[in-house]
Amino acid sequence: MTLFAVDPQALKETLTSTLGTLAKSIDLKLGELTVVVGAADYLQAARLLRDSPGCKFEQLLDLCGVDYSEYGGGGWEGPRYCVVSHLLSVSLNQRVRLKVFAPDDDMPVVDSLIGLWSSVNWFEREAFDLYGVIFEGHPDLRRILTDYGFIGHPFRKDFPMEGHVEMRYDAERQRVIYQPVTIEPREITPRIIREENYGGLQ
Asked: How deeply is 11 buried, as exposed, middle or buried, from its count of CB atoms within 10 A (0-12, 13-18, 19+)?
């Protein structure tokens, strides 16, 4: 089963003519199309992908954040935070990946797509929670996976594996409390069995 009802190269040409200068790049690799747009053009490009006759991407299937800070072994020189959306056209049986980079690494902000696809609501909240990307225009941008008092954004590459604080129930205070992490870093060495006839096997 193929991902495309139309030839991917033909869809690439359609996307090129539809988006014009709004697209920074349109790449076809391994049968998948990826469109990169600038943050200023993100909303307009997304609307064209949804509404244009040759595109008709009626559904947003997924949206996630990406931290490029260690991409390519740390050789990445572009913006740090990217938002990636996966769009599907049911009527034309075609897919596209839409990428936008937040221009400011210290305060990553891109437009919300909630006015175009309501399904993006919780996806954008997740990307905000895990990566700290702010979606301008989102009506209810708050944490969705971590606790309200959580410090930081755990999918950022510089976030410590053990976190900053831990939460536990204090029986004396009869409430949940936060305290500094008490996890001791340790190295686990696997046990290696070198018996010639282990388990009766020859």
From this structure: buried
In a domain, 80, yes or no: yes
Q: Between vectors from CA 79 to CA 47 and to CA 128, what angle results, nearest 5°?
A: 65
Please indicate, yes or no, if residue 160 is contained in any of the structural domains: no
Query: Would 152 be classed as within a structural domain?
Result: no
CATH number, domain with residue 125: 3.30.460.80
Which helix (H) or strand (E) is 153 found in, with range? none
| CB-based burial label for 96 (10 Å; 0-12, 13-18, 19+) | buried
How many domains does the chain divide into?
Answer: 1
35 and 98 Cβ atoms separated by less than 8 Å: yes
Q: Which of 98, 130, 92 is nearest to 111 (CA)?
A: 98
Inside any domain, residue 183: no
Q: Do the strands 32-37 and 94-101 form a parallel or antiparallel pair, or are they unpaired?
A: parallel
**pLDDT digits over 56-79, tens only?**
999 999 999 999 998 988 888 899
Give the whole-number percent of the chain exceeding pLDDT 70: 88
CA angle 144, 80, 149 (to 5 degrees): 30
Can you read off the two tokens belonging to residue 133? Answer: 């990307």
- pLDDT tens-digit profile of 98-128? 999 999 999 999 999 999 999 999 999 999 9
- Segments forming the whole domain that contains residue 56: 8-146
Tell me: pLDDT of 1 over 50.
no
